[in-house]
Amino acid sequence: MLDSLSVRLGLLGSVLASFILLLRKLYPKPYPGIPYNEASARRITGDMMDFAPIIQKTNETADALFTVTTQKLGTPIAQVLFPGFRKPIILLEDPREIEDIIVRRNKEFDKGQTALDIFGPMFPRASISQFTTPALKAQKRLWADTMSMDFLRKVAAPNIHTSTCELIELWRLKASTTFQNQPFNVHSDFKDAALDAIWAVIVGEEPGTIQHDIKTLEDQLAGKACSGEAPPIGSFLKEQVSYIMNSIARNGNTPSPKWAQKLETYTPRYRKFRRVVKAEMHRAMKKAVDRYQSLEVARLEDDAADTCAMDLVLRRQVLQARRAGVPPSDPTKDENMLDEMFVLLVGGHDSTANTLSWFLRYMESHPAVQTTLRTTLRTFFPTPPTSATTILTTDIPYLDATCEETLRLSGTAKGGLRQALVDTHVLGCPIPRGAEILMNFHVNRAPPGEAVEEGRRSATSRAAGEKRGDGLRGVAGRDLGAFEPRRWLVDGEGGKERFDAAALPGLAFGGGVRGCPGRRLAMMELKIMVVMLVLNFEFLPLPEEYKSMAATEKAFREPDFPFARMRAL
Ligand code: HEM
Question: Looking at the record's lineage, which domain of life comes first (predicted)?
Fold first, then answer.
């Protein structure tokens, strides 16, 4: 009797002990030496109950994490706590130290696992989904020449100019007919124009999306029924990109983005995406390969005939195989190439379209800047330039400053994730190997808390500070919430204004080995579009209900009210 009681008590005891152990495991496990909310460490949900309602209210995920940690604690470095089965994420809001980590500390930090978890299941072979290995570096090198300035000037610039002119034609039509004095959504038109440009740059065909929009509107205005014309090539991509962006936003906000994304790849919708995209890419690739396989080696070495990024990469692969005396591999079976091309197409058009939508919001909300920009541009271009080369070879500091300021304030790519490869320190805090850091790339406010003592910075950060000074503490760093292109201008030779790209840490494209490979292309597109749009339209004040600067973070930070009201000039 006594024995059975003690067995039962023993059992109960071990059940209780296991329960307590399990409960302990569920509590957050903060990294030592890094600030955190103490109350959050005492509850299983960690900081989740604090940031979840902010995300629901603002739709800005990364910003909510900064709000409940670095901002609340008034410190540039802190950690956000999750239930014990998920490691904390370290948050960093100090542009100087962020720049140092991404540009100068590549041996200590690589791309973060969470970033790989989000893109990896959908595009496993794209460089965005991989850690930095020798194989990845080779893959990046293969594509790097497609983003060289010479190649972009030859291949991308004319295509961007053409799609900008088509967009202007569409907006002239809209502004003079259906919308007249009314605002309309510019985001979808920017997406179409950017898609036309990037598809031509990467694949070498004209998808004709904006042309199709013009034709549809003309038919509507003429009271004609739908022409029954086949949709343009670009339309398939629009639908697929929108699916991918929405999936990333939805699954990225779940407690386990990795599993949510993995499950997504088993859905019929994802399979359809893969099937449709593969078929289109295969069609385009086959045309290029057939062309190159019939060429002699000497002609294969000549890059003069490359009309797009895919041409350049495929030609090099055929050449490599020919030199090695082996049959060239079938590029349509090359998953690396497929995934890489798709990420370039998606990343390359949605990012630019969002940045341009923000640009028009700033032109509306800052009419004085708009007027200065137009007046300045007119001194260089009395009429809108008819070629991209003229725009790209003219030095206009106020134009460069406006583009840089747009990138800074829009925070199109809000944050970057890195992972520590070794035990190390950031701002004096110990960072254990494997810990992930979410860095705020959006320089729209001063770093939280007191100015960081120089002694807490890394040696490389201190050296850079001594050489360049700390722009954030100078004139350029004043009132960072305001749109002010002049913060990027300094006195140059002979009292002429000069654009200073280093006036503030430039984080809009990240940096270092894992920085944005499309940076030059994006800057080129931004510059061409800004010149052509400001010389062709005046952007008028919006009704009160459209003036909000609220945003939603998906893969990129999108304005909630991407509207413009315009008058053709
Ligand atoms: C205004 C436009 C753009 C912005 C603001 C932007 C921003 C960024 C940022 C912040 C990163 C992460 C960098 C880091 O972690 O250090 C990134 C990565 C990337 N971007 Fe862009 N980007 C833009 C345009 C483009 C374009 C036009 C392309 C392609 C043609 C592109 C392709 C990529 C790719 C493939 C990566 C991943 C790189 C890697 O993981 O190694 N982006 N971009």
Answer: Eukaryota
Report the CATH number that the domain containing residue 555 is assigned in CATH. 1.10.630.10
State if residue 127 touches ligand 1 by the CB under 6 angstroms criterion: yes
506 Cβ inside 6 Å of ligand 1: no
Residues 532-566 pLDDT 10s: 999 999 999 999 999 999 999 888 999 999 999 99
In a domain, residue 135? The reply is no
Q: Higher pLDDT residue, 389 or 325? A: 389
Phi (first) and psi of residue 34, to 5 degrees: -120, 130
**413 CB near ligand 1 (under 6 Å):** yes
Ligand 1 center–CA 313 separation, angstroms: 19
End-to-end CA distance of the chain: 99
* Torsion from C-alpha of 219, 220, 225, 226, nearest 10 degrees: 70
Cα of 323 vs centre of ligand 1, distance in Å, is 33
Burial group, residue 57, by CB count within 10 angstroms (0-12, 13-18, 19+): exposed
Indicate the DSSP class of residue 414.
-
Pocket probe for ligand 1: among 340, 516, 556, the residue whose CB has the most ligand atoms within 8 Å is: 516
Alpha helices (H) along 381-468? 388-392, 397-410, 459-468
Q: Please check whether residue 39 lies inside any domain of the structure.
A: no
Tell me the CA–centroid distance for residue 300 and ligand 1, in Å. Answer: 30
* Ligand 1 and 190: CB distance under 6 A: no
Q: Which atom of ligand 1 is nearest to the CA of 416?
A: 15
Judge whether 458 lies within some domain: no
CA of residue 144 to ligand 1 center, whole Å? 13
Does 527 have pLDDT greater than 80?
yes
Q: Whose CA is nearest to atom 21 of ligand 1?
A: 516
Ligand 1 within 6 A of CB of 244: no
What are the pLDDT digits (tens) for 448-471? 988 899 999 999 999 998 888 888
Sign for the CA dihedral angle at 353, 354, 359, 361 comes to positive
Look at residues 388, 413, 372, 344 and name the one whose alpha carbon lies nearest to residue 497: 372
**Residue 491 falls inside a structural domain:** no
From 351, 354, 558, the mutation candidate for ligand 1 (largest count of ligand atoms within 8 A of CB) is 351
CA 526 to centroid of ligand 1, rounded, Å: 14
The domain in which residue 381 lies consists of 146-413+516-568
User: Taking the C-alpha atoms of 64, 68, 71 and 77 in order, what is their torsion angle to the nearest 10 degrees?
Assistant: -100
For the chain, the residue count is 569
Eight-class DSSP state of 84: T
Over the stretch 408-421, which tens digit does the pLDDT of each residue have? 999 999 999 999 99
Instruction: Establish whether residue 118 lines the binding site of ligand 1, counting it when its CB lies within 6 angstroms of any ligand atom.
Output: no
Nearest CA among 199, 116, 129 for reference residue 162: 199
Mean pLDDT estimate for the chain: 89
Phi/psi at 556 (nearest 5 deg)? Answer: -125, 165
Q: Decide the pairing of beta strands 436-440 and 89-92.
A: parallel
CA 328 / ligand 1 centre spacing (Å): 30
Contact indicator for 122, 490 with CB cutoff of 8 Å: no
The tens digit of pLDDT for each residue in 102-146 reads 999 999 999 999 889 988 898 888 999 999 999 888 888 888 888
Ligand 1 close to Cβ of residue 120 (< 6 A): no
